[in-house]
């Protein structure tokens, strides 16, 4: 049987999907809306640090706030999630470099061959495979924690966290938005004008 060849094919096909999806996300970080912009993944201003403390208190320590403040609920990614996505991006870069580096000698295409320098840099296949393997476990652990927190926030905040991944919309209280944010959202999504009703003919 050729089952391991099938496993390798799935591995390589998934690697290319992973790689081009990452390139698409980098592109979207520069042309997407403010929630997908690369700037939203660097939450180190006063507001971002306050949100980090809030998320750590609620998500990690499972503490309730004495006074519920809707301004602590992020419209896009919360600050801890943003930092974790930046870390995940760098792990993804390591995964791509080591993966294509291992594949370079067996591939006849120019893209993997661009990474032929990786294995000699690390002194051989063993170290590169080890790094690639460890990075895979980071993805597995991240996925487990990420899925749990997504459903946790969907239940806790009731804003359609999960359904927004399919429909693209969340439920956000107007009290959560500043005047500037509300005006910006209204400018991005102007109300639709009703279609004119013409004279009916029989």
Account of the 3D structure:
The protein has 8 helices and no strands. The relative contact order is 0.08. The protein has 202 residues and is an all-alpha fold. The termini are far apart.
Mean pLDDT: 80
**What is the H-and-E element order?**
HHHHHHHH
SSE class: mainly alpha
Beta percentage is under 5%
Tally of strands: 0
The low-confidence parts are none
State the helix count. Answer: 8
Q: What is the distance, rounded to the nearest whole angstrom, between the alpha carbons of the first and last residues? A: 71 Å
Q: What Rg do the Cα atoms give?
A: 23 Å
General form: elongated
Main beta-sheet strand count, sense and barrel state:
none
Helix content: 55-70%
Q: What is this structure's SSE topology?
A:
Blueprint: H1 3-31, H2 46-60, H3 79-103, H4 110-113, H5 118-121, H6 125-157, H7 164-167, H8 179-188
In short, what is this structure?
The chain is an all-alpha fold.
Features:
202 residues; elongated
């Amino acid at each position: 049987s050729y089952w391991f060849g099938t496993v390798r094919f799935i591995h390589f096909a998934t690697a290319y999907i992973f790689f081009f999806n990452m390139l698409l996300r980098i592109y979207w970080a520069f042309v997407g809306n403010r929630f997908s912009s690369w700037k939203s993944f660097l939450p180190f201003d006063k507001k971002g640090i306050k949100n980090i403390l809030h998320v750590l208190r609620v998500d990690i320590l499972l503490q309730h706030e004495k006074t519920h403040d809707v301004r602590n609920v992020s419209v896009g990614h919360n600050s801890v999630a943003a930092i974790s996505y930046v870390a995940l991006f760098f792990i993804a870069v390591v995964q791509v470099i080591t993966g294509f580096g291992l594949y370079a000698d067996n591939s006849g295409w120019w893209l993997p061959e661009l990474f032929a320098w990786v294995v000699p840099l690390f002194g051989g296949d063993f170290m590169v495979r080890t790094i690639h393997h460890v990075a895979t476990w980071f993805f597995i652990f991240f996925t487990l924690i990420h899925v749990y927190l997504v459903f946790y926030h969907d239940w806790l905040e009731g804003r359609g966290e999960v359904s927004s991944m399919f429909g693209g919309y969340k439920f956000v209280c107007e009290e959560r938005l500043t005047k500037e944010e509300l005006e910006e959202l209204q400018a991005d999504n102007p109300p639709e004008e009703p279609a004119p009703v013409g004279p009916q003919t029989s």
